[in-house]
Amino acid sequence: MDMIIAVTGTPGVGKTTVSKLLAERLNYDYVNLRDYALKNGLGEMKGDELELDVDELTETFAREFRDRNVVADSHLAHHMPADIVVVLRAHPRLIGERLKARGYSKEKVGENVEAELVDVILVEAIDKNENVIEVDTTGKTPEEVVEEILGLLGRGVKRRVGIVDWSGTYDEIIPYLRL
Ligand SMILES: Nc1ncnc2c1ncn2[C@@H]1O[C@H](COP(=O)(O)OP(=O)(O)O)[C@@H](O)[C@H]1O
Ligand SMILES: [Mg+2]
To answer: Any residues with CB less than 8 A from the CB of 37 and at least 6 apart, and which?
Structure first.
């Protein structure tokens, strides 16, 4: 049976690390949607950011991967026609620390910490797909996260949402916010 697994979440949450490991464990193909878009001449570079037409990406991706086993990695992955969407979550402070270490601007760090705080990607994912599994990566290794995903898939769980609430972290993450 062919299956498209979309791994999404706020930048820095661990998508690429987890997706590669998950694809390896399942013996699925791994596709980073940014690389895929660039390779297929989709989107336009605006400065150092790739501006993508999500509908165009979705159509191209669907045509190529409809009948394949694939793990799709991107903060846009939940827009793809997936059998299951995995939304990775992490304490907003971790997002802030990782993106700062990546050299992101204060503005970009703030934008993403805020997005994680208020569940932006989760809400989008739920809006797009019935089958959404949320996984909290905080305090776990990538291997543990992959085990958790495999366990849920193995038990046939197709929806598990509402497992984190970062509102209580607000005081801790004020330094990262654009106030
Ligand atoms: N449980 C975890 N799951 C995924 N990544 C983790 C975890 N714990 C720590 N990390 C680290 O967090 C970083 C996540 O980076 P990356 O996978 O590139 O995120 P993304 O693709 O979402 O931007 C990596 O350095 C990874 O080693
Ligand atoms: Mg990545």
So the answer is: 43, 50, 52, 57
